[in-house]
Task: structure prediction
Amino acid sequence: MRECAKNIVGPLMLAPLAGYTDKAFRMIAHEWGADGAVTEMVSAEGLARGGEKTEKLLERYPGEENLVMQIFAPSHDPVERCMDRLIAHNPSMIDINCGCPVPKVVKTGAGSALMKNPEEIGRIVKVIRNATDIPVSVKFRLGWDSSSINYLEFADHAVDAGASLITLHARTRAQGYSGTADRSAFRTLKEHFKGSDVLVYASGDIFSAEDARTLIEDYGMDGVMFARGAIGNPFIFRMTKEYLRSGKCNEPAIEERIRTALHHLEAAVSFYGENTACREMRKQLMAYIKGIPGANKAKAAIGQAVTSEEMDKALSMLI
Ligand SMILES: Cc1cc2nc3c(=O)[nH]c(=O)nc-3n(C[C@H](O)[C@H](O)[C@H](O)COP(=O)(O)O)c2cc1C
Result:
């Protein structure tokens, strides 16, 4: 089973990012060399009830092969009830979200609230393992807050129940997305599972090829998940591959960044239609042009654009 997980994802993954890692972004990330990608988080309860919006989040782009589908749930019960619908989407791996800090999710007992209930992650993994042979992975935090760090115990519950891959976001729930990720915890976690065939991935403050290299080569991680570091920057996958191979890599030229942003926009329009694509793509396009001379003017134009032609024009003025 764990061998099997290795064939599904490689070391450089696109992390799950609600509001970002839709099929358009995953397609672009794969084109730039991502070894795997995770959907946005999907409610197990919503899926069990056959919610149309929820099902849409699990759609693939044409030709997308391996896809890790992430669910969130407060307990094993909705997970059990959503299994048929989830399996119908043919996920390559099923990931369980134990890191989301958003109050709306946490107050139901899901996301990072599961860190307070480590036995339940074991039950959730078991329910999936009993329903299917599809490998299971778990993404979790250091703990709820600095006085309740329990990632090793938490990981033990997940792995004992049969998780093939675990990803640590090395922050507590209390930290949200600020403060620095505690890299030493990656080493401790990998060491903890020394000799086991569970794959151990790192998440948190991975913003450059050098960050990824350090974690893979110096810390011995099986892989890394690029999250904020990949938004507007799918080039990071190719750059990291080059860097791991040769010790150097080149930043993309401005023209390449704009061309990729336009291609991303075009993919979103073809998948969702112009209105939805323009609304959803605004934040992603702004990330592509961050730091380019003249970006402020282009950002203002993107902010006002309601057609893809207007967005195209705003981007094209930068090259
Ligand atoms: C906008 C946004 C949305 C996110 N959505 C998810 C999600 O749906 N599921 C999940 O497990 N983590 C989610 N995360 C957490 C990331 O996957 C990642 O673990 C975190 O951002 C730390 O990595 P970074 O510091 O390199 O960004 C999200 C993070 C951000 C910033």
